């Protein structure tokens, strides 16, 4: 039996060629306490609930105040957070059959209000996730837990229904999950409309002081943080700005101290600007198109256009991904080959999709779509027209959409761009989120796996994770791909205790996903963050979120 969590030799060679070793902002002096640091975010979180809000900005902000049992380092190694040790077979915290995991909490842990953290909080967190009253994004993995025993306040024994290899993806800070304070809710597990969602009670280095809609979220130092003397900062302000371009301008002017998520074509603009430094690392994220296989008007029926695999394949063949990577991203990105671009589960043998507009035209003809005098194909009186949606304020994606629009038009496909705010696009079932409800044709976004891709792969591609009325909108398989062979491969990868068997299962899954043409990888990205020179202590890497180590940040010369 093996449980291995590492970057390893499977890191994609193309990505390694792009970037030098992990970028670390150099520490020029001894850490200094005090001061306020302002970070520009070009999106506002919809919520700080770790189980309902999946936006990257939500994960970044809530990660300052909420923590899981463990987390990952930039190199992809699991380390403790609230747990006293990372449970492994080697330290006998995982049973021989892989069905029991024993968690021991660090001694003396308290919530931000001073209340002690106990094993009952772990149980409560699981109960919240499994409560049907909560519109959680996914219960994947947590639904494999049969029970959690608490022999004492510092110990929890997690009992799985069957061996569950990716157990470290549960209750993990690295995927944005966290332990919840049972005393805060007084035992009520329905937290969907709680004040906690805007002002959570956690164990992290900072606490939410205020949230001013459309303006900022201000965090203050947690006096009860588990690491003595940290955080160094007194305040951490996340300032909402209209776009990445505005954030960049404010970074240059010194109006903000840091900004999250620059894009590759901004590197030449900023890399030699006095007073600014960049953190650039490989990323497991990729830009992709998700095609809805079902009819938005009747989800029980195939999509009237995209339900035809020939149309989906033609759409993929008509997109020159290299143009997106080379022209829009200054050659700093690579054409993506599959849903797992980085890490031990990546498969370097999968070839990149080809650009072949001639074959695309042939497939569309075979599917009965006839080219009209206006250059757009039609069939049975219906135009070959589909809508594409991404979040507003993302200039790179808009430029990419425009390039794709032009390329698809060359084969007779009319692509209509209709972008919406992130809070709308990623809305839950109750708020009629278009992805959740299946009210879209093509969704465009960036997403990628953790060092263990189990959670990501399950919630994106398992048929059990198709959002529906019956499951309360659980899951993020919004393409609605339902493939028994794919489901079996994902199940094997989840339950096998042999790492090589897991890798083989993921390789099969990736091929099935590619062959469906429901999910079209475009290009892989870099993690690029910008800082003023006075900011010290930041470390970036493929397997960590922005500001994952904010307790170590400080302002030089403060």
Describe this structure in words.
- By secondary structure, the chain is α+β, with helices and mostly antiparallel strands.
- It folds into two domains: 31-257 and 534-555, Periplasmic binding protein-like II (D-Maltodextrin-Binding Protein, domain 2, 3-Layer(aba) Sandwich), CATH 3.40.190; 283-525, Roll (Dipeptide-binding Protein, domain 3).
- It is 23% helix and 21% strand.
- It is built from 15 helices and 23 strands.
- The chain has helices at residues 13-18, 56-62, 119-130, 182-185, 244-253, 267-270, 309-317, 321-328, 357-366, 395-409, 422-425, 434-437, 454-461, 484-495, 499-516, and strands at 36-41, 70-72, 78-80, 100-104, 145-152, 155-160, 206-212, 216-221, 235-240, 258-259, 276-291, 294-295, 298-302, 334-335, 370-371, 377-379, 382-383, 385-389, 414-417, 442-447, 519-532, 535-536, 554-555.
- The strands form six sheets. Strands 1, 7, 8, 9, 10, 11, 14, 18, 19, 20 and 21 form an eleven-stranded mixed beta sheet that branches.
- Strand 18 (385-389), helix 10 and strand 19 (414-417) form a beta-alpha-beta unit.
- Helix 7 (309-317) packs antiparallel against helix 9 (357-366) and helix 13 (454-461) runs antiparallel to helix 14.
- The protein is globular.
- The model is unreliable at 1-27 (pLDDT under 50).
What would the average pLDDT be, to the nearest integer? 92
Reading off the top of the CATH hierarchy, the class of the largest domain is best stated as: Alpha Beta
Number of strands: 23
Radius of gyration: 23 Å
Helix-strand makeup class: alpha+beta
Total DSSP helices: 15
Whole-number tally of structural domains:
2
The rounded distance between the terminal residues' Cα atoms is 51 Å
Shape: globular
Question: What is the percent of helical residues?
Answer: 10-25%
- By CATH, the superfamily of the largest domain comes out as Periplasmic binding protein-like II
Q: Architecture of the largest domain, CATH level 2?
A: 3-Layer(aba) Sandwich
**Quaternary structure of the protein:** single chain
Beta content:
15-25%
Which fold name fills CATH's third level, the topology of the largest domain?
Answer: D-Maltodextrin-Binding Protein, domain 2
Main sheet makeup: 11 strands, mixed
Unreliable stretches, pLDDT < 50, 5 or more residues?
Answer: 1-27
């Amino acid at each position: 039996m093996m449980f291995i969590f590492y970057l390893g030799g499977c890191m994609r060679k193309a990505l390694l060629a792009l970037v030098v070793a992990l970028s670390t902002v150099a520490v020029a002096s001894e850490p200094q306490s005090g001061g306020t640091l302002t970070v520009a975010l070009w999106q506002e979180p919809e919520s700080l609930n770790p189980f309902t809000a999946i936006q990257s900005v939500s994960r970044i902000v809530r990660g300052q105040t909420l923590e899981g049992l463990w987390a990952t380092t930039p190199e992809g190694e699991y380390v403790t957070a609230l747990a006293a040790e990372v449970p492994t077979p080697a330290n006998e915290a995982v049973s021989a059959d892989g069905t029991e995991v024993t968690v021991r909490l660090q001694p003396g842990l308290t919530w931000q209000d001073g209340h002690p953290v106990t094993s009952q909080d772990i149980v409560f967190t699981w109960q919240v996730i499994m409560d049907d009253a909560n519109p959680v994004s996914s219960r994947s993995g947590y639904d494999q837990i049969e029970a959690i025993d608490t022999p004492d306040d510092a110990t929890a024994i997690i009992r799985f229904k069957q061996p569950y290899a990716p157990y470290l993806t549960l209750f993990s800070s690295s995927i944005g999950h966290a332990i919840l304070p049972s005393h805060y809710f007084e035992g009520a597990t329905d937290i969907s409309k709680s004040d906690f969602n805007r002002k959570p009670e956690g164990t992290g280095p900072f606490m939410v002081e205020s949230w001013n809609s459309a303006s900022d979220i201000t965090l203050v130092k947690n006096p009860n943080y588990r690491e003595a003397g940290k955080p160094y900062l007194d305040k951490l302000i996340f300032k909402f700005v209209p776009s990445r371009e505005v954030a960049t301008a404010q970074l240059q002017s010194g109006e903000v101290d840091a900004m999250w998520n620059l894009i590759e074509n901004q590197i030449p603009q900023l890399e030699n600007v006095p007073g600014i430094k960049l953190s650039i690392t490989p990323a497991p994220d990729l830009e992709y198109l998700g095609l809805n296989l079902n009819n938005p008007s009747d989800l029980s029926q195939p999509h009237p256009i995209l339900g035809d695999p020939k149309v989906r394949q033609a759409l993929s063949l008509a997109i020159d991904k290299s143009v997106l990577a080379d022209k829009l991203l200054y050659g700093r990105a690579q054409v993506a080959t599959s849903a797992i671009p980085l890490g031990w589960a990546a498969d370097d043998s999968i070839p990149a999709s080809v650009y072949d507009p001639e074959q695309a035209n042939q497939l569309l003809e075979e599917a009965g779509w006839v080219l009209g005098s206006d250059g757009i194909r039609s069939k049975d009186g219906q135009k070959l027209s589909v809508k594409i949606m991404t979040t507003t304020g993302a200039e790179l994606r808009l430029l990419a959409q425009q390039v794709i629009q032009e390329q698809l038009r060359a084969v007779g496909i009319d692509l209509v761009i209709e972008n919406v705010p992130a809070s709308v696009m990623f809305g839950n079932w109750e708020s009629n989120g278009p992805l959740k409800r299946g009210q879209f044709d093509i969704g465009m976004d960036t997403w990628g796996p953790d060092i263990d891709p189990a959670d990501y792969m399950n919630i994106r591609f398992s048929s059990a994770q198709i959002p529906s009325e019956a499951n309360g909108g659980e899951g993020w398989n919004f393409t609605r791909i339902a493939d028994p062979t794919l489901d079996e491969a994902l199940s094997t990868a989840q339950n096998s205790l042999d790492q090589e068997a897991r890798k083989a299962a993921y390789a099969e899954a990736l091929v099935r996903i590619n062959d469906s043409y429901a999910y079209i990888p475009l290009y892989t990205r870099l993690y690029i963050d910008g800082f003023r020179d006075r900011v010290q202590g930041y470390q970036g890497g493929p397997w960590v979120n922005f500001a994952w180590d904010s307790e170590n940040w400080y302002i030089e010369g403060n």
